[in-house]
Predict the 3D structure of the following.
Amino acid sequence: MTDDTAPTPASQRLPRHALVRDHTVYACVMGSRAFGLATEASDTDRRGVYLAPTPLFWRFEKPPTHVEGPREEEFSWELERFCELALRANPNILECLHSPLVERLTPVGEELLSLRTAFLSRRAHTTFTRYAKSQHGKLLADVRLHGAPRWKHAMHLLRLLLSCRDLLRSGRLEIDATPYRDRLLEVKRGELPWPEVDAWMTRLSAEAEAALAASPLPESPDHTRIESFLTHTRRASALA
């Protein structure tokens, strides 16, 4: 009698790290180094997108939607999952498409980057501000419990709010925070009082809200273009 619950033999499992090693179409550095906020102590956060070969989807065990590693601080998404999250205006995913520090780029990756504007829409206001409210709540909890927030997290929340406001105003996603570097690093070092930092966050949220009505961004992303890209990319992989 066959055991239907038996795990897949190791020899038949999908090589997760091999997908990153052999099939990455786009890889970049994110975090403080991409935002222009790095210091000597900053980590190197790597993010990537891999294209799982189409024949792998014909198996019972599907390719993973994401892979952590193989290096420290490295995380990659399968192309379809990455596009799904970008279409939902996930802040972290959208920002990956705008990193100035590109480490790997194939023709498929170039096509993905050419579609950056197709992912952008006014939905970003909802997702960015929802994430910001969640992080702000955690900062307030730290203030209540410890008398001060985690200042590094406060800095990154301010950077995100700046990015959101400017995206809604201009229709372009800019992740370079160099113009605000000095003041943001003051926040990171805890050199500004929390009420002042909190007031800055409140002001940025209000400015983003005010920019929404007149934003040049479309109401929704260009789902058709993204799906067409994914379809012909999968087809080309199958034929290869």
